[in-house]
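Design job #97: recover the sequence.
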């Protein structure tokens, strides 16, 4: 999911999921996208693609951009 679609959800209750697996439920506090980085390992190294860093409630998630972030339904009008 693109960061520009996630940022408007800051301050709202959200569910973060990846292929039907719920990763977090709570209020989205912060969201940013980080660029790919090279991580050296013995005998070579690996590139990691762009990642999303999401703070949901008291959890910090570093997840791929393939996750879904869905806002909870707005409260009904009183």
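Job complete. Output follows.
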């Amino acid at each position: 999911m693109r960061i520009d679609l996630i940022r408007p959800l800051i301050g709202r209750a959200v569910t973060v999921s990846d292929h039907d697996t719920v990763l977090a439920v709570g209020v989205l506090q912060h969201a940013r996208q980080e660029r790919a980085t090279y991580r050296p390992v013995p005998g070579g190294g690996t590139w990691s693609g762009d990642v999303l860093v999401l703070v949901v409630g008291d959890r910090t998630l570093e997840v791929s951009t393939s996750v879904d972030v869905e806002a909870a339904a707005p409260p009904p009008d009183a």
